[in-house]
């Protein structure tokens, strides 16, 4: 087997686990570099092939109960700064998840603001929750519809609270950032469904590219610490399904 290889469904069982893990980390580093240089529409087929290969390796290791090899703790002497490739991908994944959670929160808040509309078929009229008309013959149906509307809105409130609870760790972590770090994170990760490439973020911040990368790196490291992805003296790599 050569130094450079591609893992496929046909040959994956031929490689020992340690080689698969090395290949997995190599692929994810390459993908991350491409994401920093190109926007989503420019990533191309090569990026998609890398993603398919990394997903294949991940799924195979999980099926063989060897996923701990990916999540293995990497220790560092004393308080040495951990290498970015050991935590950046995990922080970015959490930031993408946080963006998705915020979208759910916005949708629920909008629904609660608009309220549940109640339609009374026999009266052929639409009334907003809280103001239902109708004659005596429609009273029973109207009452049931109002009760149902209350139940729906109550469910929305429960879902909204659940989303806020899921977001709480990231809320706290973001509070640990300074103003410049928070700006970089918001522009890059919270402006669209997929993170913007660095070349598109730099014009949006009030400092030049060298400082941008310094601020971005410091922000991701601080988030990794706040989210307990890394700890003093070691880094813990979580495994995502």
Task: Write structural notes for this entry.
The protein has 241 residues and is mainly alpha-helical. It folds into two domains: 12-69, no CATH class; 84-117 and 142-227, no CATH class. The protein is 57% helix and 6% strand. It has seven helices and five strands; from the N terminus they run ααβαββααααββ. It has helices at residues 17-37, 44-63, 88-114, 139-175, 179-189, 198-201, 209-226, and strands at 74-75, 117-120, 125-128, 230-231, 234-235. The strands form two sheets. The protein has a three-stranded antiparallel beta sheet with strand order 1-5-4. Strands 2-3 form a two-stranded antiparallel sheet. A hairpin with a 2-residue loop joins strand 4 (230-231) and strand 5. Helix 1 packs antiparallel against helix 2, helix 3 runs antiparallel to helix 4 (139-175) and helix 3 crosses helix 7. The radius of gyration is 25 Å and the shape is extended. The two termini are 29 Å apart.
Helicity range: 55-70%
Number of helices: 7
- Cα distance, first to last residue? 29 Å
Q: How do the helices and strands follow one another from N- to C-terminus? A: HHEHEEHHHHEE
Radius of gyration: 25 Å
Label the overall shape: extended
Organism: Aneurinibacillus aneurinilyticus ATCC 12856
Protein name: Phage transcriptional regulator, RinA family
What's the layout of helices and strands?
Blueprint: H1 17-37, H2 44-63, E1 74-75, H3 88-114, E2 117-120, E3 125-128, H4 139-175, H5 179-189, H6 198-201, H7 209-226, E4 230-231, E5 234-235
Antiparallel strand pairs: 1-5, 2-3, 4-5
